[in-house]
Amino acid sequence: MSPAMPIFRLQRGSVPLLVSLPHCGTAVPEAILDRMVERARDLEDTDWHLGELYSFVGKTGASVIFPLHSRFVIDLNRPPDDAPMYAGVNSTGLCPRQLFSGEALYRPGMEPDTAEVRQRHERYWQPYHEALRGELARLKSEHGLALLLDGHSIKSELPWLFEGKLPDLNLGTAGGATCAPSLRDELARTLAAQSDFTHVVDGRFRGGYIVRCYGQPAHGVHAAQLEVCWSCYMVERPPYRVDPQRAARLVPVLESVVQTMLKWGFAKR
User: Fold this and answer.
1) Using one digit for the tens of pLDDT, what is the confidence trace for 189-229?
2) Which of 148, 144, 187, 178 is nearest to 19 (CA)?
3) What are phi and psi of 74, to 5 degrees?
4) Nearest partner of 184 among 197, 171, 195, 196, judged by Cα
């Protein structure tokens, strides 16, 4: 992997919304890939096809940021101190050592040590967050407030992480802490207005580090996370292909979420 490869892509927009897709990257440096177990090389825990699903965002005038590297290199939605995001449940860390199935990601003795984790943090995590933070600051300066939608997707059933099947759409605001109550209510109404997918607000996925860190409604930054089950838009097994019919039902819902955030933001300026 060339050291000159970009860390992320940022498309700056003209409205007060930034969409972050922190787990859609698939690049893995050879020095890391060579130490991973064969199964891990399929990058199964990627947030597959989110760039395609959210491709409409540019037409709304919103900004978009996403990494090029896999979450197996570093998880951009984890805190730099690697503190657990959800107490008392299984989870993967800043530099994951396990797949979402609970199986080892690396061959025995090949896991990253403390020094390597620090290097990956400096190389991959910091630039993404500096850009994300900077873009939110720009939006707030230009519009008086900034909105952040953190987009994710996940396999609908992962026994090592949670019991049973997840709701299709999982809106997270850390119990209402990351955005204004009125925005949370509007987003909840938007999800309730459609009938194709089940949904929950602040359920199992209440929001990871990104929305918890940057969602500061008292300071004019309002953030929400949307976790979408793979079953809403794709086949949940390799080679992880999009199901066009399912995706065609999901994209209008994502568009409605984005438009709800923008409408709320424009009303508050």
Assistant:
1) 999 999 999 999 999 889 999 999 999 999 999 999 999 99
2) 148
3) -160, 145
4) 171
The reply to whether omega before 108 is within 30° of 0 (cis) is: no
Nearest alpha-carbon partner for 142 in 3, 49, 4, 269: 269
Rounded to 10 deg, the angle between the 244-268 and 181-192 helix axes is 150
CB atoms within 10 A of CB 209: 19
Q: For 145-187, what is each residue's pLDDT tens digit?
A: 999 999 999 999 999 999 999 999 999 999 999 999 999 999 9
Residue with tokens 């089940």: 198
Domains and CATH numbers, the chain: 8-268 (3.40.630.40)
DSSP 48-74: TTHHHHTTTHHHHT-EEEEESB-TTT-
Question: What is the signed CA dihedral for 57, 120, 215, 22, rounded to 10 degrees?
Answer: 20
Instruction: Please name the residue ranges forming H helices in 193-243.
Output: 209-214
